[in-house]
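Encode chain A's predicted structure.
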Amino acid sequence: MPSDELAVAYLHRLHRRITWTRFGRSGNSRLKRIAKRSVAPIYWYVKPVVEAGAEVKARYRAVKSAYGVGMIDQLVGCVAFTASFRACPSSYFDYRLFLKERWPLRGDYLYYDELWLLLAWLNSELGPRDAADLSDKRKFYARASRVGLPVIPVLAEFDAGVILHNRPPRELPAADLFSKPADRWHGEGARVWLRQADGSYSGDPGSRHTAAELYETLRSQSFEHPLILQPRVANHSELQPLSGKGLSTVRVVTLRDTDGAIAAALACFRMPVGSLVADNFASGGLACRVALEDGRLGLAVFKSDTRALAAHPDSDAIVAGRVLPHWSAVKQLAVAAHEEFKSLPSIGWDIAITESGPVIVEGNSEWGANVVQMTYHMPLAATPIPERLAEHLDRLAEACGLQDMRRARRPGCARYPGVLCTLSEDARQTPP
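Encoded structure for chain A:
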């Protein structure tokens, strides 16, 4: 391995190796896993063609119409991309790698599934308890509130048909409420309950529930996923024109280096649009970059649309150039929160800015790369993130005894104490 291997190239290689290690191991029976593993060397080559073909079939007409790139060129490029990076073929289109001027940049991006897998491996080895507490919104609230971090209160929990009363129905605040699954992402299942003049709650036009009926509704829905009920939080008055019918949040990505120092690395501002009550970028929300120095917003983008917008499409309120209130407090809160979960190398914090200051909505131990790279209009290779993650992963691979999964040895590279490796011996095999 060359000693000057770039951090992002190392992360691509490591993702490919881990993917090969786990390839063909899914299945709910031993017989299925054996069958899959026996054909894995063949399917390793076939899978990118199958996945890329399906993605091109779904998207080639729109690309042909907008950019003039033919179906064959799209298919060849998408297969090459998927086979090289073992990433979801949708990223080939999301980053417009079918354009000749963008194709050379393909190695500089970290793709959603790559970053997710690498962070998941790091977190499972370095901080499984911290990662578990972040992934469950109930555990996160309990732990964060215990150490005094400003978080949105949980009024009640609903799990497998059981109501866990933090507060009984008769003691609910006289305000709008918000419910969401305790273990899901991307704003899935989020719902606003508007309080009416008679004290009832409306979740859909024409429907009304008493507080007790609302609890019963959420209880019946909790068999699929556990739910939490919270007060609905309102943005700062300066940000309400950008918040549509939901809550806008700042995604602040914090990094811990191998010496333990924690700092904010990147930030972006996410906004609901239309009827969305959540601001999630992957689910159709709008987002823009935030300058770390002063909290100034950049041009906004949608994940599915490459146009840069200076204003919010619903309200026509200016986005670009606006400065977020309480910005210094937002950064300080993100770093302070990471100190509480300091075993994890990187966390994506979703922070709402209210009239009285910032409040944490949730923390993400595995955060998405798309919203950061698309709002900054540059790949993660241009940021400190790949280098910091490469340092952690290199040390972890060394501690696990996986020498060929390491970056070139550098002076002063200490081991993580007490790390257990979850990768099998097959990780030592070189993927095709």
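The first strand starts at residue 156 and ends at 159.
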